[in-house]
Amino acid sequence: MKPHEHEEAALRIEKSLRKCGPEDHEIIIEAAMLAGSHWLNAHLHRLGATPPAQDVMHTYLLVVNELRRLSVADPQAVAALGAIEDMRPAYVRGAQAGGREAAQRALSLLESIRASTRAA
Fold it and tell me: Which of 18, 22, 70, 88 is a good FRET partner for 101, with 20 to 30 A between their CA atoms?
């Protein structure tokens, strides 16, 4: 996808996110991860770190050298997406207490990814 296509997808997901309430923490975390991956991909494409035909699906699927290389391009944004992804096992797939707080943290991390993209 091209950067503007990633941004359009992220904005659509964020529009849907606004319909969620605090009790929807699973959906909020999942959507924050998906929107965050679109923002990150748009950012990495614009920086020239990845070509439009090569998207990062999940940071945990990257080989170590690729994760390190992309982390040089924007360490904060890559780490923020990784932090959202790390929430999924406990709060989306599991039943760990504190889901509402985790969802708010996911939204904060999403904001930081979006801010990195727009600052570039």
Answer: 70
